[in-house]
Write a structure and sequence with these properties.
There is one protein chain. This protein is α+β, with helices and mostly antiparallel strands and about 260 residues long. The chain has two domains: about 5-145, Immunoglobulin-like (Sandwich), CATH 2.60.40; about 150-255, Arc Repressor Mutant, subunit A (Orthogonal Bundle), CATH 1.10.10.60. The chain starts with 6 loop residues before the first strand and ends with a helix. The chain has helices spanning about 95-100, 130-145, 150-160, 170-175, 180-190, 195-205, 205-210, 225-235, 240-245, 250-255; strands spanning about 5-10, 15-20, 30-35, 45, 55-60, 65-70, 75-80, 85-90, 110-115.
Length: about 260
């Protein structure tokens, strides 16, 4: 893990920092983040599907506790309180069974509050982003289940590396695991099919194209019409509106390197 954030905001109203995990945690963690609304008013934000499971803590709550957000298949509008910070970690799918030791099928497009003192995180840990990342990394490492199903690890690693661009039957062939069993695993553990998850990853992979002004990237989509349809399904807006990202509304889009 770098001693410095890999991404920092230049917007004085919406401040954010992103840190990547150490290599030994890369199968479980995508990134750590800190986001702060420096404005004196609420900021409207839209959370869009990005294929991550998030655990975050906030300085706003009087009853301090963490929140676990499941996978999302649709956009959610929320209001970011003024002078408030969110600090958290975006987890990959392998972490659900082998770190959190639970299913998240019941919180698809939803969230739950975590137990008080989850991973021994206190309000004081939110005062320093670098220290928070170090502490969370240690807690994650301590909670990794020693025996991991190699098929699951290989499958999920391949899905992330290919950004969901293969067919389910191709993933099944590469990891020698029947499609039916893969889909049962995904639906029971994560709350959606592998095909649906791959669609989200392909959408996420288009962020960089959109930021570069390429409004209709056809890579891994059958045609422009297919791409537009998927973007509107996942965000309720067109690729052009998402690319504009007026007022940094789309949070994951804003904080993507």
């Amino acid at each position: 893990m770098s001693s410095k954030p890999v991404l920092e905001s230049k917007d004085i109203k919406l401040e954010y920092q992103i840190m990547l995990p150490k290599p030994e945690l890369s199968d479980f963690v995508e990134r750590f983040y800190m986001i702060r609304n420096n404005a004196i008013t609420n900021k409207e934000i839209v959370l869009i599907p990005d294929g991550n499971i998030d655990i975050f803590f906030t300085t706003e709550s009087a009853d301090f506790a963490g929140t676990l957000i499941g996978l999302e298949t649709q956009p959610t509008t929320a209001f970011f309180p003024p002078k408030c910070s969110f600090i958290g970690v975006s987890l990959k799918l392998l972490s659900i069974e082998y770190i959190l030791h639970r299913s998240i099928a019941d919180i698809l497009n939803s969230s739950i509050n975590l137990p008080t003192k989850f991973w021994d995180i206190s309000p004081n840990d939110l005062t320093n982003f670098d220290s928070f990342c170090t502490k969370i990394s240690k807690k994650i490492h301590e909670n990794i289940q020693p025996e991991i199903d190699e098929r699951k690890q290989k499958l999920l690693k391949l899905v992330y590396e290919t950004k969901g661009s293969l067919l389910v039957k191709e993933y099944a062939q590469k990891v020698f695991w029947p499609e039916r069993q893969i889909n049962r695993y995904f639906n029971q553990t994560f709350g959606l099919s592998l095909k649906s998850f791959c669609t989200i990853l392909r959408f996420k992979a288009s962020f960089q194209h959109l930021k570069n002004g390429i409004l209709y990237p056809e890579q891994d989509f059958s045609d422009q019409a297919h791409f537009i349809k998927e973007v509107k399904k996942l965000t309720k807006v067109t690729p052009k509106e998402l690319a504009k990202n007026k007022n940094d509304r789309f949070l994951q889009f804003s904080t993507m390197p």
